[in-house]
Design brief:
- The complex is a heterotrimer of chains A (271), B (524) and C (266).
- Chain A has a domain of 173 residues: MetI-like (MetI-like fold), CATH 1.10.3720.
- Chain A has 11 helices and no strands.
- Chain B is of the alpha/beta class and 524 residues long.
- Helices cover 42% and strands 16% of the residues of chain B.
- In chain B, the strands form 6 sheets. In chain B, strands 6, 7, 8, 9, 12, 13, 14 and 19 form an 8-stranded mixed sheet that branches. A 3-stranded parallel sheet of chain B has the order 2-1-3. A two-stranded antiparallel ribbon of chain B has the order 4-5.
- Chain B contains 19 helices and 19 strands.
- Chain C is 76% helix and 0% strand.
- Chain C has one domain: MetI-like fold.
- With 266 residues, chain C is mainly α.
- Classes of the chains: A mainly alpha (271), B alpha/beta (524), C mainly alpha (266).
- At the A-B interface, helix 3, helix 6 and helix 10 of A face helix 1, strand 2 and helix 3 of B.
Chain lengths: 271, 524, 266
C-alpha cells in the first residue's frame, strides 16, 4: 500500500514538473498581463489581443503560413510515401536495405545538420527562395515517417488477399485500389497525421531555410523572433493556451476513437 | 504485360505531376501579387515607421502611385545581424532583394565584393524618368554635414573589387548612432557612472549590479566596449596605449584580441548574459539594470520608461525626472564621449530587380518629414541634416548654405519652420505646440546630446575586419563560452561515452560471433 | 499466374523510384555537399584549413566538450527520472496507456512555447539563468523521449520470465536487476540515443534559458554558418554526423523499430 502511494506520488511529481509551465501559461492567460499577477482580475483581454494587437496581422500570417506549409508538404509526403512504401516493399533485399537506411536518416539525423545541409544545397543550387524551399525541406523530413508507418502494415498484409482479388478477376491496378489501399489506409492516415504535426512543429529547419527576402514566418519562427525580443506579451499566453487545448482535444479524440475501436474488435473476436 | 507496366507508369506520372502541381500552386501564392510591381526591402527589424497611423511604407506606396501611376507591393523582410544578411547576399541567397540597409562595415565588405550598384550612376540614369526630391542633388545632399565628413574620412576610397570607389556613391545614409550604456537610474549611482565603460564589468563593485548586466551578443560591439574598457583601465597591451580611439577599435592584432579575450572572459562572471534583442525589454521590466545598447534602442527604451507617478534622481544630470532609464556614453578625462559611432545606409544590390523603385524608396525616406517619423518611431538618429528637418526653404533660389554652422539666407526665398516635422514632434510629445509654449518652437529634440553627439567627441567609426573577422569570431566564442564546466568533468563525460561505446561494440562483436553458427544451421 | 505476379512485382518497384530520386537529391546530395564544403575555403579551393581551425582551437573543442557534458548529464537525469516512470506505468492496468499519453502530451506543444514559458517562470520566481536552468530545460524537453521507448520495451517483457525468476527464489530487487533491467536493454539504448543526440545539437534552448551564456555545439554550428564560415561549420556538422551515425548504429543494433517510437503516439 505504502509502495503504491509512493509510486503514485512519484508519477504526480514528474507530471507536475512537465505540466507546470503549461498550467502557469493557461492560468495567467486570464490575467491580461504578462507579469504573473492578477492585478486586473479575471479577464479575457489577452484573448482579445490575439485579434486586436498591432501584431495580430503578422501573427495570423504566420499561422496561415504554418498551416499552408504543413498541409501541402504532408499531403505530398503522404502520397509519395505511400507509393514509395509499396515500391520499397517490392524491392529486392539488396536494394531495399540501403533505401531503408536512407529513409531512416532524416529521422535519426540531428535537426541542425539537416537544416544546414538543406541550406547549403539550396544556396549552392541557387534555388529560388520562398515557399518552395520550405515545402521541399518539409517533404524531405516528413516522408520517412509516412514510409515507416505504411511499410510495416504492408509487411503484415496477407499476400493471399491480393492474389484472391486477382483470381476473382480484378486487374492488378483494381486489386491495388480496392483491396490493398483500404487495408493500409489506417496506416496512411496515421502517417499523414504524423507528417502534418511534425511539419507543424518544426522550428530549426524552417528557421534556417526561411530565406532572406520573402520573409516567410511560421508560427514557431515568429514566436522565436518576437517573443525573444519583447518577452512574452499577454496575447502569447492566450495563443499558447488555445494551441494546447486544441492539441489536447485532438489527441484525446483520436485516442478515444482508437481505443473504442480496439474494444469493439476485442468484443467481436470474443464472440 | 507491357500494358500493365504502362498503367503503372501512367499512375506514377499522374502522382508526380499532382504532387508538383500542389507544390507549385503553393509557391504561386505570390503569383497573384507578382502582377503588381514589387519592391523587396531587406532591413533590420523595427527599423522603419510601421505604425498604423503613420506607416512610412504605406505612405511610400501612395507616393509611388502618385508619381508613377503604378501600384507597388513592398515586401519588408528583416535580418537580425549584418553577418546573417551578408552571408545571404554574398552567397547569392538574396537575389530578389532590391534594397538593403547594412551598417558601414558591411557596406564596405559588400562593395569590396562588387555586390553594390553605384547609386550616383543610377540616379543619373533615372533622373529623367522620375523626379527625385533629394537624390538629384547628390546622394549626400540631405545628410548631416559633419556626418558626410566622417564618411569621407574613413571610406573615401574603398575597394570595389576591381578598383576603388567613394562609399558616398554607393550608399545613402539612413540612421546613425553610438554605442553606450543604458542603465536604470534606481540602481546605478554616480559612482557606478564614474567607472565609465567599466560599468559593464561592474568595476565599481556594486552589489546591486552584479549579474544584472547584459552585453551585446555581437563580436564587434562587445569588442569595441572591451577595447574602450582596456583603454580606460590601462589594460591595453604594450605599444597600443597611445593609439587614437578611431584606430584602436579597428585594430585586430593578435595581442589586442588576446587582451580582449581576457577581459571579456572576466566580464562573463559579472553579467547576466548576452543579447541582441531582448535587452530593452529586460531593462524596462527591471530584470537587469545595465545594458550595452545602441543609442536608438536606448532612447526608445527611455521614452517607454516614462512614469507619470514617480520621480527618479538621475545620477548623470543630478536632476529629478520621470524617466526610469537613461543612456550614457562614457567620457574621457576631457569630458568627451568615447567609443564607437556607426551608421546604416541604404544600398542597392548589383542585381536588384527593381532599381527604380529602390531609388524612389531611398529618396522618399530621405525627405525630412519621413525621416522624422522614422526617427521618432525607432529611436535612432536620422542621418538627414538637422537643419533640413527644422527648416524648409520656401521660394526660388539655390539650396541653403551652411557657413560655419550658421545659416546663410539665400536670395529669393526664406527659411521657415518645417511644420510637418514640428507637428510630428508635437504628436509624439517630443515638443509642445507653439500655442502651449508661448509661441515658441521647441526643437530640443535635435539638441539632445544622447541623440546627437557633440562634435568634439572621441568616437571612432569601425571598418570591416576583413580576414581578421574569423580570428575575432574565434576570440568571441572563446570569451563567451567561459569555463563554467571544468575540463575534468568534460573528460568524465567523454570517458562515460567512450566506455559505453566500447561496451556496445564488445557486445555487438560477441553477438555476431555467437550468432554465426546458428545461422548456418537454420539455413540448412 | 506466378509469372504475371512476378512481372507485376517488378512493375511495382517503379513506385519507389520517385521517392528514391527525391531522397537522393534532397537528402544525400546535401550531405555530400556538407562533406565537400568541409574541404573548401571561401573561394572554393581545396583545403584542410577548416579541420585545422576546428581541431586546434581550444574554444571549439571546449564547446564540444561542454555539449557532451550537458548531453551526458541530461541523459543520465532523464534515465534516472524516466525509468521508474516507465516501470510503474507498465505495471498498471492496460499498461497505463492513458497515463503514458499524459506524459507525452506536453511534447505536442511546440518546444519554443514551453521553453519560453519555463524562462518566464524562472524569471518570475527569481532563479538565476545559467547551467542549472539549461539542464532543467533539456530534461524537461526530452524526458518524454526517454519514457516512451522504455515503456514500450518494459511492456514487451514476457511476464512469465518475471514469474519464473520469482519462483526460483529471487527477491524483488534481484528480479529487477537480473531480469527486468537486462530485458529492457533495447529501450534503454534507444532512449539514451534519442535524448543524447538532440541535446548536444539543439540550438535555441540553451540560448533562451541562459541568456546566451551557455553556448552549445548546435549554437556554435549556427554561429559559424551565420558568420559566413561555411567551411568550419561543415566540419562541425561532420563531427555531429559522426555522433548521429554511431548512435543510429547502436539503436539499430538493439531495436529495429525504435526510430519511430519517438513520435509513435498516433
Amino acid at each position: 500500500m505504502v509502495k503504491k502511494i509512493f509510486e503514485k506520488s512519484y508519477l504526480l511529481i514528474i507530471l507536475a514538473m512537465l505540466y507546470a509551465p503549461i498550467i502557469f501559461i493557461i492560468v495567467y492567460s486570464f490575467s491580461g498581463s504578462s507579469n504573473f499577477n492578477f492585478k486586473d482580475g479575471f479577464t479575457f483581454a489577452s484573448y482579445e489581443a490575439i485579434f486586436t494587437s498591432d501584431k495580430s496581422a503578422s501573427l495570423w500570417e504566420a499561422v496561415g503560413n504554418t498551416f499552408l506549409i504543413a498541409s501541402v508538404s504532408s499531403v505530398c509526403a503522404t502520397i509519395m510515401g505511400t507509393f514509395a512504401s509499396i515500391g520499397i516493399f517490392a524491392l529486392g533485399k539488396r536494394i531495399r536495405r540501403p533505401v531503408e537506411a536512407v529513409n531512416q536518416f532524416p529521422i535519426i539525423n540531428s535537426e541542425i545538420v539537416m537544416a544546414v545541409s538543406f541550406m547549403i544545397f539550396f544556396v549552392t543550387c541557387r534555388f529560388a527562395e520562398g515557399y518552395a524551399r520550405l515545402i521541399i525541406a518539409h517533404i524531405a523530413f516528413c516522408t520517412p515517417y509516412v514510409v515507416l508507418s505504411v511499410l510495416p502494415k504492408l509487411e503484415s498484409l496477407d499476400p493471399n488477399v491480393y492474389e484472391a482479388a486477382l483470381d476473382l478477376g480484378a486487374n492488378p491496378f483494381k486489386a491495388m485500389m480496392k483491396v490493398i489501399f483500404p487495408i493500409i489506409s489506417p496506416a496512411i492516415v496515421s502517417g499523414f497525421v504524423m507528417a502534418f504535426t511534425i511539419s507543424l512543429d518544426d522550428f530549426i529547419i524552417t528557421q534556417i531555410n526561411k530565406g532572406a527576402a520573402t520573409g516567410i514566418d511560421t508560427l514557431s519562427t515568429y514566436i522565436y523572433s518576437d517573443a525573444r525580443v519583447q518577452g512574452l506579451e499577454p496575447f502569447w499566453y492566450a495563443m499558447f493556451s488555445i494551441i494546447f487545448v486544441l492539441v489536447l482535444g485532438i489527441i484525446l479524440v483520436v485516442n478515444m476513437a482508437k481505443m473504442r475501436k480496439q474494444k469493439k474488435e476485442a468484443l467481436k473476436n470474443g464472440i | 504485360m507491357a500494358s500493365k507496366r504502362f498503367i503503372a507508369l501512367v499512375t506514377l506520372l499522374v502522382i508526380v505531376i499532382f504532387a508538383f502541381s500542389v507544390v507549385l500552386s503553393a509557391c504561386n501564392n505570390e503569383g497573384e501579387q507578382s502582377i503588381v510591381e514589387t519592391l523587396v526591402v531587406y532591413n533590420w527589424e523595427d527599423y522603419i515607421d510601421e505604425s498604423e497611423e503613420t506607416s512610412r511604407i504605406d505612405a511610400f506606396v501612395e507616393y509611388y502611385k502618385a508619381v508613377t501611376g503604378r501600384d507597388i507591393n513592398v515586401v519588408y523582410s528583416t535580418f537580425d545581424t549584418n553577418e546573417t544578411m551578408m552571408t545571404k547576399v554574398l552567397n547569392n541567397d538574396a537575389n530578389s532583394v532590391d534594397l538593403i540597409c547594412p551598417s558601414e562595415y558591411a557596406i564596405q565588405k559588400l562593395m569590396a565584393n562588387g555586390r553594390l550598384a553605384n547609386i550616383s550612376d543610377l540616379v543619373n540614369e533615372y533622373k529623367d524618368v522620375v523626379p527625385f526630391q533629394n537624390l538629384a542633388n547628390g546622394t549626400m545632399s540631405n545628410t548631416e554635414a559633419t556626418f558626410v565628413n566622417a564618411i569621407n574620412r574613413e571610406f573615401s576610397s574603398v575597394s570595389t573589387g576591381d578598383g576603388t570607389g567613394n562609399m558616398t556613391d554607393y550608399m545613402v545614409p539612413y540612421m546613425m548612432g553610438t554605442i553606450g550604456i543604458l542603465y536604470n537610474v534606481k540602481y546605478v549611482t554616480a559612482e557606478d557612472l564614474a567607472s565609465g565603460w567599466g560599468m559593464l564589468w561592474n568595476a565599481s563593485g556594486s552589489e546591486l549590479l552584479e549579474n544584472k548586466i547584459l552585453v551585446k551578443d555581437s563580436v564587434r560591439d562587445t569588442y569595441a566596449a572591451a577595447v574602450m574598457y582596456m583603454r580606460e583601465y590601462g589594460l591595453l597591451p604594450a605599444g597600443y596605449e597611445d593609439m587614437p580611439i578611431a584606430d584602436l577599435i579597428n585594430c585586430t592584432d593578435d595581442a589586442m584580441l588576446d587582451a580582449a579575450k581576457n577581459v571579456l572572459t572576466a566580464q562573463r562572471e559579472h553579467i547576466s548574459g548576452y543579447e541582441v534583442d531582448f535587452g530593452k525589454d529586460d531593462m524596462l521590466n527591471e530584470i537587469v539594470y545595465v545594458d550595452l545598447a545602441w543609442s536608438g534602442d536606448a532612447l526608445w527604451a527611455i521614452e517607454e520608461s516614462y512614469n507619470e507617478d514617480e520621480v527618479y534622481l538621475n545620477p548623470r544630470t543630478g536632476e529629478y525626472d520621470n524617466y526610469m532609464l537613461d543612456y550614457y556614453v562614457p567620457v574621457d578625462e576631457d569630458g568627451n564621449a568615447t567609443g564607437n559611432i556607426w551608421f546604416d545606409g541604404w544600398v542597392i544590390p548589383q542585381n536588384a530587380p527593381n532599381k527604380l523603385a529602390a531609388l524612389m524608396f531611398i529618396d522618399f525616406m530621405n525627405m525630412p518629414e519621413n525621416a522624422i517619423y522614422n526617427s521618432i518611431y525607432i529611436g535612432y538618429t536620422s542621418a538627414v541634416s538637422r537643419e533640413k528637418m527644422m527648416y524648409t526653404y520656401v521660394g526660388t533660389g539655390g539650396m541653403f548654405d551652411l557657413v560655419d554652422g550658421e545659416y546663410v539666407y539665400s536670395e529669393g526665398g526664406a527659411y521657415t519652420i518645417n511644420e510637418d516635422v514640428y507637428s510630428a514632434l508635437v504628436d509624439s510629445e517630443y515638443a509642445l505646440s507653439p500655442e502651449d509654449n508661448d509661441g515658441e518652437y521647441d526643437f530640443s529634440f535635435f539638441e539632445d546630446d544622447r541623440r546627437y553627439p557633440t562634435e568634439t567627441s572621441q568616437l571612432g567609426v569601425m571598418r570591416d575586419f576583413g580576414d581578421r573577422q574569423k580570428n575575432a569570431v574565434t576570440m568571441w566564442e572563446n570569451a563567451k563560452t567561459g569555463a563554467d564546466v571544468p575540463w575534468a568533468l568534460i573528460w568524465c563525460s567523454v570517458a562515460i561515452l567512450g566506455g559505453g561505446l566500447i561496451f556496445v561494440t564488445f557486445y555487438f562483436v560477441k553477438n555476431t560471433l555467437k550468432r554465426k553458427p546458428r545461422k548456418i544451421k537454420t539455413e540448412e | 499466374m506466378k509469372q504475371f505476379l512476378k512481372k507485376f512485382h517488378v512493375t511495382k518497384r517503379v513506385f519507389s523510384y520517385p521517392y528514391i530520386l527525391f531522397m537522393l537529391l534532397f537528402v544525400i546530395v546535401p550531405l555530400v555537399m556538407i562533406f565537400a564544403y568541409a574541404f573548401m575555403d571561401n573561394d572554393h579551393n581545396f583545403t584542410f584549413e577548416n579541420f585545422k581551425i576546428f581541431f586546434t582551437s581550444q574554444s571549439s573543442l571546449y564547446v564540444l566538450g561542454n555539449s557532451l557534458f550537458v548531453g551526458v548529464v541530461t541523459t543520465v537525469i532523464c534515465l534516472v527520472l524516466g525509468y521508474p516512470v516507465a516501470y510503474i506505468l507498465s505495471k498498471s492496468k492496460n499498461s497505463g496507456k492513458v497515463m503514458v499519453l499524459l506524459f507525452v502530451l506536453p511534447m505536442w506543444v511546440n518546444f519554443l512555447i514551453r521553453t519560453l514559458a519555463t524562462k518566464a517562470i524562472f524569471l518570475a520566481i527569481g532563479v538565476e539563468l545559467g547551467m542549472g536552468t539549461v539542464l532543467f530545460g533539456m530534461v524537461y524537453n526530452y524526458l518524454p523521449f526517454m519514457i516512451l521507448p522504455l515503456h514500450t520495451s518494459i511492456c514487451s517483457i514476457d511476464k512469465s520470465y518475471i514469474e519464473a525468476a520469482k519462483d526460483l527464489g529471487a527477491d524483488g530487487s534481484t528480479v529487477f536487476l537480473k531480469t527486468i533491467l537486462p530485458l529492457s536493454k533495447s529501450g534503454i539504448m534507444s532512449g539514451i540515443t534519442m535524448v543524447f543526440i538532440p541535446t548536444i545539437s539543439t540550438f535555441a534552448i540553451s540560448q533562451l534559458l541562459s541568456n546566451g551564456k551557455i553556448f552549445l555545439f548546435g549554437d556554435s554550428i549556427e554561429l559559424k554558418f551565420s558568420q559566413d564560415m561555411y567551411g568550419v561549420g561543415a566540419v562541425m556538422s561532420l563531427v555531429m554526423l559522426a555522433f548521429v551515425l554511431i548512435s543510429s548504429f547502436v539503436m539499430n543494433h538493439y531495436n529495429k523499430n525504435s526510430v519511430s517510437v519517438g513520435r509513435s503516439l498516433w
